[in-house]
Amino acid sequence: MSEKKLLTVVVDDDKLQLEIISDFVKKTNFLELEGAFHEPLIALEHIVNTSPDLLFLDVEMPELSGLELIRSLKNPPQTIMVTGNKDYAAEAFELDVLDYLVKPVNDYSRFLKAATKASENFKPHRPDTIGESIYVKEDALLVSVKVKDIMYFEAFGDYVKIGTTDKVYVVHSTLTKIENRLSEEFLRVHRSFVVRLDQIKNIDQFNLMVGEKIIPVSQSMRPKLMSRIKTF
Questions:
Q1: SS3 of residue 183 by DSSP
Q2: Most confident of 9-13, 170-174, 223-227
Q3: 42, 12, 11: which is closest to 140 by C-alpha?
Q4: Which tens digits make up the pLDDT trace of 152-186?
């Protein structure tokens, strides 16, 4: 069994089942609840941006089914499907689903058997770096945002603001999780900010500017910033 706690996301439009499975995750010492969602589109955005290790995923959901959600992921995490309809089993296993729990999920021993299989099957890996674009939720749509247009990321409570050349998006994530997937074109300059280096307009003793946004630079991070920019 892996010694690492598996970062786990639960997605189920049935709020009672969502709560039960989330509680089972919290009860299991080798799992860590990373997120619980009853809206699949919000869950998809979160999964794309955070790359969890394990996913408990309901099949039948409005807007986006669990099977459609899995198909939309380039590198899906280990997935345990949850549904009241056994007819989906064959299709689920074709998508390399690890295990299958039948609703109502209220037997912790069966849950633990599936979770243990995931832990034994887990192979640690560094999350894939963000490619040329990312998807963020805007109203009921997932919108493609080109990474080259991103100027900064800003911590915002349980969310992160993504400042681009034409607007600001808000996603449910943490700055650290996003930072871990960024290329070296980006650099953290403050505990609340990561900036794209080629978008910096100017730098003074305490701040820098990207676009029209003034961003603080912490004294501890300033030396690394100065070592990464070219000066004459």
A1: coil
A2: 9-13
A3: 42
A4: 999 998 899 999 999 999 998 888 888 878 888 99
Please enumerate in sequence order all residues whose Cβ is within 8 A of that of 83, keeping only pairs 6 or more positions apart, or say none.
58, 59, 60, 66, 100, 101, 102, 103
Report the C-alpha gap between 97 and 77 in whole angstroms: 9
CA distance 207 to 98: 48
Distances from the Cα of 224 to the Cαs of 144, 189, 190, 201, 228, in angstroms? Answer: 31, 8, 11, 17, 6
Rounded distance between C-alpha atoms, residue 135 and residue 141, angstroms: 9
Alpha helices in 51-125 (DSSP H): 66-71, 89-94, 108-121
Considering only CA atoms, which of 15, 12, 10 is closest in space to residue 32?
10
The DSSP call for residue 146 is E
Per-residue model confidence (pLDDT) at position 204: 92
Average pLDDT over residues 99-128: 86
The string over 196-206, giving b where at least 16 C-beta atoms fall within 10 Å of a residue's C-beta and e elsewhere, is bbebbeebeee
Confidence (pTM): 0.57
DSSP letter (8 states) at residue 87: G
Six-digit token string for 204: 């003074």
